[in-house]
Specification:
By secondary structure, the chain is of the alpha+beta class. It has one domain (28-128): Cytidine Deaminase, domain 2 (3-Layer(aba) Sandwich), CATH 3.40.140. The protein has helices spanning 2-9, 30-42, 108-114, and strands spanning 53-57, 63-68, 125-128. It has a three-stranded antiparallel β-sheet, with helices on both faces. The longest helix is centred in the N-terminal third of the chain and has 13 residues, at 30-42. It is elongated and about 70 Å long.
């Protein structure tokens, strides 16, 4: 690589360089970056109570899947309930199960796997902004 840079660009990377030609040293590390992607993806969630986001990364630090908690693909948000409390402010135990978001929401971790752009997720890492539920774990 060095000989190619010298030959084609007249640039020797091993010579002393000025401060303007050095790379930044204050860039974000990979873990913080991918966690940030998971947090940013949660901003797409329609869940009013706890928006979740997830990011799947392969061994070469490439994002291969992103997801957020929401309804399955092609299900209009306006047709499903997002309630966690009834009108009096009581918890969902007082509501009919089908009048809550619980049976309809697809978790961020599952959506990230369903939306992956890779054949396999073996050996990959998943970043989520909150501790996953027992099913997603």
């Amino acid at each position: 690589m060095r000989s190619l840079l010298i030959m084609e660009a007249g640039f020797d990377p091993e010579l002393e360089r000025s401060a303007e030609s050095k790379k930044r040293s204050d860039y974000v590390n990979w873990d913080d970056f991918f966690f940030g992607v998971a947090v940013l993806s949660s901003k797409r969630s329609k869940n009013p109570s706890f928006p979740y986001g997830a990011c799947i990364v392969d061994a070469e630090n490439r994002v291969i899947g992103i997801g957020y908690d929401g309804l399955p693909r092609d299900c209009p948000d306006e047709c499903f309930p997002f309630a966690t409390k009834d009108d009096s402010g009581k918890n969902t135990e007082k509501l009919s199960f089908l009048h809550t978001q619980v049976p309809f929401i697809c978790h961020a971790e599952v959506n990230a796997i369903l939306n992956k752009c890779s054949a396999d997720v073996a050996g990959c890492r998943m970043y989520v902004e909150r501790f996953p539920c027992e099913y997603c774990s």
